[in-house]
Amino acid sequence: MYSIYSYKYKSSMFSIFRLIGILNYMITFTYEEQHSVSDALMQLFTILTILRGDGGCPWDREQTPKDVALNLIEESYEFLDAKEDADVIEELGDVLLNALMLLEMHQEEGKSDGVAALNAVCQKLIRRHPHVFSTITVNDSSEVLDVWNTIKVKVEGKRDADDDFFSRIPSSMGPLESANKIQKKIEKVGFDWPAFDGVVEKVQEELGEVVEAMESGNVDETEMEIGDLLFSVVNLSRYLGIDPSFALHRSNEKMKRRFNALYALSQERSVPLGKEHIEEMEALWQEVKGHEREGRQEQ
Question: Which of 94, 97, 96, 115 minimizes the C-alpha distance to 106?
């Protein structure tokens, strides 16, 4: 499709690539700063078609829709983590990159899947927002969701299978997200705890059953009880309006941050890591947590 590959800012890297045989020829493309969303999106889409096309990038050409979809999930978490404006801009760009890469994959070989997908989502948004694009009146976001769900079922025919109440939950969804979806579907038909206390008591009950199973020595039963405990914790998160996946993501990041700080201190003070030095490690851990508390108080 293209015969030469170049950027406005050229470097000696291209001659290096040519020497080691990574690139045999170049494709002409000049980056230009755009000033509208439509033009900027079109430029990004053009770059992606080059990368996926003949003479483009071998790695990009090897990617599958599954690969890119998983990358999109990861980049979405990185966007949620972004703190500084520059980070937000970069991570939002990465989210858009992966979304448009999926679009490009469905456009290849003359297919029109991408255009059809864009047309379909536009039609769906208009259809499901009759309070905006038609004459229906709603008073709050709760009524908006009622209208949305009614249209999904009665107009679009998107209803659960007769023999499976959860048939519309994707089987490829991760266990944590799936548990949350299951509980939200059950909640919609009124099968839910009447008060917060019951949810907490259920978590405590499941933890007790885990301990009992461990003490019995039954590994299979312990595994099942651990699952029940996790399910009840997800339910607690759902009851509080907190996304369990992102909550766990934040805890993962906190653990990495704290242990990296502990690791730095251990190297600085020549404290070996290992079970035989658990007391020294615990002291470092408490010191790291103390520094964090002091930092929050100063903010």
Answer: 115
Q: What interhelical angle do 278-298 and 244-268 show, nearest 10? A: 110
Q: Which two tokens stand for residue 188?
A: 């919609």
What φ, ψ does residue 11 adopt, rounded to 5°? Answer: -145, 170
d(CA 51, CA 115) in angstroms, rounded, equals 20
Same domain, 208 and 262: no
Instruction: Name the β-bridge partners of 164.
Output: 161
pTM, 2 dp: 0.67
Q: Is the dihedral of CA 18, 23, 25, 31 positive or negative?
A: negative
Domain with 273 in it: 246-298
In a domain, 142, yes or no: no
- pLDDT tens-digit series, residues 86-137: 899 999 999 999 999 999 998 887 777 888 999 999 999 999 999 999 999 9
Pair (286, 217) in one structural domain: no
Query: How far is Cα 8 from Cα 29, in angstroms, rounded to an integer?
Result: 8
Based on the structure, what is the number of domains in the chain? 3
